[in-house]
UniProtKB/TrEMBL annotation:
This is 2-keto-4-methylthiobutyrate aminotransferase apoenzyme. GO terms for cellular component: cytoplasm. Residues 29-377 form the Aminotransferase class I/classII large domain. Signal peptide: none annotated. Keywords: Aminotransferase, Pyridoxal phosphate, Transferase. It comes from the Bacteria. SUPFAM superfamilies: PLP-dependent transferases (SSF53383). InterPro entries: Aminotransferase_I/II_large, Kynurenine-oxoglutarate_AT, PyrdxlP-dep_Trfase, PyrdxlP-dep_Trfase_major, PyrdxlP-dep_Trfase_small. Its cofactor is pyridoxal 5'-phosphate. Belongs to the class-I pyridoxal-phosphate-dependent aminotransferase family. GO terms for molecular function: kynurenine-oxoglutarate transaminase activity; pyridoxal phosphate binding.
Amino acid sequence: MIQVKSKQPHVGTTIFTVMSKLATDMGALNLAQGFPSFNCSPELIDLVSFHLKKGHNQYAPMAGVPALKEAIAEKTADLYKVNYHPENEVTVVSGATEALYAAITAVVRPNDEVIVFEPAYDSYAPSVELNGGILVYITLKPPHYQIDWEVVKQKITPQTRLIMLNTPHNPTGKMLSMSDLNYLAEIVRDTNIFIISDEVYEHITFDGRPHISLMMHPTLQERTFICGSFGKTFHITGWKIGYCLAPKDLSVEFRKAHQWITFATSTPMQYALADFLKKPENYLAIPDFYQKKRDKFLSCIQSTRFTYTPAEGSFFQTVSYSGISEENDYDLAIRLTKEIGVASIPVSVFYHQKNDYKILRFCFAKDDGILEQAGERLRKI
């Protein structure tokens, strides 16, 4: 029997797959995996149908359909007052996870150090390791998950090649401020350090907070890959369409990786999104839509024994159960799925040493009826 020597022997099935399968098997409410339970705009579906029938069914250009790249550049300029050239600096990819992998591949070489703030989305570390990078973790702790920039400065070495950031943050819901950007800019100024900014939840922000993109600081913009997602914004996670904004020289290297990963992304869906973006209200209304979802979920769990700080952004809410149980978070997440029928994600899985702060993550991108049922069940604890 031929033997396979795994490149990632410690990597198994993701917690999202595990919890979603368990939720299905147990007939539980799935507030674990981050996908909406509601459909996207009927107009968007009609646009896809239109372009399918129009014959836009062959390979798209490797870097993306020009109309969509132009629409992304226009939206970015309108929102953040930053100009990216649609031909040379905007790349459409098959989901933000691909964008993250391609960006890491573009700049990380064996033995380069990559700073990752944890809790972190689970694709970051494996992508760095597959490219030969060395992970340097900075641990953020509840309840505030604040970045200590002095600690970041101390972690910088001559081998530091990349810093990975995520705002609004999954799983904590925290957002970076302009003050954070200023601190970071001082650290990386006059270095050869690149930055990847995972901004897939850019339109899901609450309580009037503006999304502060790393592109808004000139020192950061020139060295940053901005990774975005239409899946999160328009409730179309199954379409797997994302994009990367980066200066021309960075985009050249990014596309070298992208062309060998997926080459091109679904053509009719790109044309549909290009048309959909012509109406700014389609994305400008998103913060209010999701604020109502967050507030609904918080009202449903208000009388439970969980404690929490309202999420600043994303469609996730973390809650502490430290006053309820001494169980580790993984065991509790499994038990709640089986016994009361509500699936969540244990936040320890987002830490490389599985730090257990007695925190669970719930996705509130669900119909109100599901959130109400979840609240009713969680009140039984």
